[in-house]
Design goal:
Number of strands: 8
CATH superfamily of the largest domain: Aspartate carbamoyltransferase regulatory subunit, N-terminal domain
Distance between the termini: 36 Å
Largest sheet: 5 strands, antiparallel
Strand content: 25-35%
Strand order of the largest sheet: 2-3-1-4-5
Structural class: alpha+beta
Shape: globular
Radius of gyration: 17 Å
Length: about 160
């Protein structure tokens, strides 16, 4: 790793999320429900040079390994992100974020009259991935294309 990239110190245990689209790291933190009130230390680097994407964001979360459910959520904001699980200062596992053809129980439909909002008829929240780049989701039930900014607020 070059000196240019070593802007944040290494962590002993935790997760490093790399290749986050530049300027979207704060959305990723919100989506992962990481706030300043949490006890886990978080390092955030925004708009660093990337040979692949021009610029990117990086997040390091100490003492927390991201789950597959969190990786599925991450695909909404950062479909090309990579996650390194760090144990004892070494990369123990690499996980890639991939948008699935369908996301089940990741986010609620943004249309308020959708059947998924009816308490008396509980349905799993199913989103069909129409496009990955840029990410576009459509509700399986009502067929509405989702507003991506609202989708982040509707994460389950």
């Amino acid at each position: 790793m070059s000196d240019e990239m070593r802007r944040v110190t290494a962590i002993c245990n935790g997760s490093v999320i790399d290749h986050i689209p530049a300027g979207t790291a704060l959305k990723v933190l919100r989506m992962l429900r990481i706030s300043g009130k949490r006890s886990n230390p978080v390092s955030l680097v925004m708009n660093v040079p990337s040979s692949k994407y021009g610029a990117k964001d990086i997040i390091k979360v100490e003492d927390r390994e991201l789950t597959q459910d969190e990786l599925d959520r991450l695909s909404i904001i950062a479909p090309h992100a990579s996650v390194a699980i760090i144990r004892n200062y070494s990369v123990a596992e690499k996980r890639s974020v991939e948008a699935q053809e369908e996301m089940i129980n990741v986010t609620r439909c943004t249309f308020s009259n959708c059947i998924t909002h009816a308490d008396r008829e509980p349905q799993p929240h199913r989103m069909v991935v129409i496009s990955v780049e840029p990410l576009q989701l459509r509700c399986h039930y009502c067929g509405r294309t989702q507003d991506m900014d609202s989708t982040i607020d509707n994460l389950l």
